[in-house]
From TrEMBL:
The gene is rnfD. Belongs to the NqrB/RnfD family. The keyword Transmembrane helix applies. Its EC number is 7.-.-.-. It is found in: Cell inner membrane. Keywords: Cell inner membrane, Cell membrane, Electron transport, Flavoprotein, FMN, Membrane, Phosphoprotein, Translocase, Transmembrane, Transmembrane helix, Transport. GO terms for biological process: electron transport chain; transmembrane transport. It holds the Pfam family NQR2_RnfD_RnfE. Part of a membrane-bound complex that couples electron transfer with translocation of ions across the membrane. It is an enzyme of class 7 (translocase). This is Ion-translocating oxidoreductase complex subunit D. The modification FMN phosphoryl threonine is found at residue 159. The chain crosses the membrane at residues 20-41, 47-64, 71-89, 95-113, 120-137, 182-206, 213-231, 243-260, 272-290. GO terms for cellular component: plasma membrane. It comes from SAR86 cluster bacterium.
Amino acid sequence: MAVKKIKLPKNYQVLSTSMIMLWVLVACIPGLIALTVFFGWGTLINIVWLGLWALVFEALVLVLRKRNLAFYLKDYSALVTAVLLGLCIPPSSPWWLGVTGMFFAIVIAKHLYGGLGQNLFNPAMVAYAVLLIAFPIEMTNWVIPLGVEHDIDAFTGATALDLFRNERGGMLIHEFWSQTSAFGTFSGIGWEWVNAGFLLGGLLLLYKRIIAWQIPLAMLSSLVLLSALFYDGGSSVSGGSPLMHLFGGGTMLCAFFIATDPVTASTTPRGRLIYGALIGIVTYVIRVWGAYPDGIAFAVLLGNFAAPLIDHYTQPRPSSDA
């Protein structure tokens, strides 16, 4: 049987795990800057605090498992988990919320399954889902963004997606939009720029070939398709425009940084398209008809659960050339 030679692109390079994680951290910077500008220093403080505890829990588990500390700590995977969770939880979170989240992310979701490369679910999303279910008040009380009118004594409040989901009270979208200072041009004030920042970082990851294009394209396309299909121009029961869903909540963070996790995502070309589309569909369904204003974490975990089955039925057929 003849063996085909695979011609690699000229700029092809094999990156180590640590280099991939470093590029992911670099790509998070534009979104982190936007979060800091509009919501204050809380997110940056959360990331530093969670990063510290991520390393502590990682080191403790590695010692218990009798693994080489230096070898495993320098892959930066624990820091990436801490950064992703720190970007998702409210900037005003109490100190113990982050510690609890990192325990579930590092100890339960990662090492209980065997460590990096063996975990079935995205550790940051496992932690986020646990925190959201266990501490719903702390997890849904966000800092009021810069530029939003509010009472002088107010510091925290609901996000724009939360307000749109629960406070519209039968109003037409344009009426609610004009009477609620939390909304900007496309979505919530601040969130538009946050999503633009993560979109910019995501394009960097695509350019560096850190992530595959199929997952973000399929997720964003399915989200746009559903929101366009069910958008009726802004009635009292409308789920919101495609632009609102694209630039609201954690859409771009999920599409480029969370759903594309190489360990827990689908790995075949066709499988990535199905996997990404599934996440986009579930995100829209939860946002519009579910109990939570943003269904990113649950959508990703459901996608992680389905990824092995998707890969099983989308394996490329072996070549019959002889």
